[in-house]
UniProtKB/TrEMBL annotation:
Pfam families: Allantoicase. This is Probable allantoicase. NCBIfam families: allantoicase. Residues 20-169, 190-319 form the Allantoicase domain. The keyword Hydrolase applies. It catalyses: allantoate + H2O = (S)-ureidoglycolate + urea. Gene3D superfamilies: Galactose-binding domain-like (2.60.120.260). InterPro entries: Allantoicase, Allantoicase_dom, Galactose-bd-like_sf. GO terms for biological process: allantoin catabolic process; purine nucleobase metabolic process. Its EC number is 3.5.3.4.
Length: 320
């Protein structure tokens, strides 16, 4: 009889792709893509299904190491929080699973680039190096009560993992716990996109649609610029109001997300003021930025540099 699943598997998976999780970095993904680690649903397998890299696996698989070291992947949690347990699922990996794994976690309140995050000294081990079995759901209980935003899965020395499940309880970012009010840009609250510089691939109206994007086509994407300019979108807000938080969501935009963005607002005096200064962005990330200005604005303009795609734009605040 199979062993019963540990209690933590009842809890939500904080890393799952549909809740905003993303595999932001891996040192290698020669045979199978790192993004498969957090796909919803169990892994699948079709025997003798070969691509140009060999047998196709529904998971993350690295090449065979010929040198010392190990492989690793970093997952940004879609919902940061307390982790109660981790499931390392090696489904269908039999002669190519890693003999051992470990898991580390870190809490970050900025948006540094993944290669810099990988070298940060603040990583804490939450699952000590331990053996795993092939074609098996390998559970590990976590006892830390800390809030985490990222986890790093290390496999020793190489091999394949089908799914990584990070079960736990969400904990909010304390910087935004006092931010309340309305999404002043949302379509269902009365927001409207008035104009944009380019809508070659998809409509800018998608930026203010309800819910989250599920694929790249759910957002706004411009053509590639071949000049020194930048793209922009102009919105009418639900009404004159004060913006307290800006959310710039580049989910599903990987090699085509903007490098940076800037937000301006139109005041009652007819002047455009800066709400969010030009700020570097990451691919496939839901960025949130607090706003200090108390200015009342009725319209907003988002500039992206130089071009690319954005899934959603949220402007939380209060109507004046």
């Amino acid at each position: 009889m199979a062993e019963p699943e540990p209690d933590f598997t009842w809890l939500p998976d904080l890393a799952l792709r549909p809740v905003g999780g993303a595999v932001i970095w891996a040192n290698d993904e020669t045979f199978a893509e790192k993004e498969n680690l957090i796909r919803p649903g169990p892994a699948t397998y079709r025997p003798a299904s070969f691509g140009h890299k060999g047998q196709i696996y529904d998971g993350w698989e690295t090449r065979r190491r010929r040198d010392p070291g190990h492989d690793e992947a970093i997952v940004r949690l879609g919902v940061p929080g307390v982790i109660r347990g981790v499931m390392v699922d090696t489904a269908f990996f039999t002669g190519n699973y890693p003999p051992e794994i470990s898991v580390e976690a870190i809490e970050m309140d900025d948006y540094r680039r993944p290669e810099l995050l990988a070298r940060d000294p603040g990583w804490t081990t939450i699952v000590e190096r331990a053996p795993v079995c092939g074609d098996t759901r390998n559970p590990f209980i976590v006892t830390s009560e800390k809030r985490w935003t990222h986890v790093r899965l290390s496999i020793f020395p190489d091999g394949g993992v089908a799914r990584l499940r990070v079960h736990g309880e969400g904990r909010p970012d304390r910087r935004f716990t006092d931010v309340t009010g309305l999404d002043l840009a949302a379509l269902d609250n009365g927001g409207l996109v008035l104009d944009c510089s380019n809508r070659f691939y998809s409509s800018p109206q998608n930026l203010i649609f309800p819910g989250v994007a599920n694929v790249m086509g759910d957002g706004w994407e411009t053509a590639r610029r071949r000049d020194d300019g930048n793209d922009w979108v102009h919105l009418r807000l639900a009404g004159p109001g004060v913006i307290r938080m800006v959310e710039l969501d580049t989910s599903y935009f990987l090699g085509n997300s903007p490098g940076a963005a800037r937000l301006s607002g139109l005041t009652r005096d007819g002047d455009w003021i800066e709400i969010l200064p030009r700020t570097d962005l990451l691919a496939d990330t839901r960025h949130r930025f607090p706003v200090q200005s108390d200015a009342v604005v009725s319209e907003a303009r988002l500039d992206i540099y130089p071009d690319g795609g954005m899934a959603r734009l949220r402007l939380f605040g209060e109507l004046a």
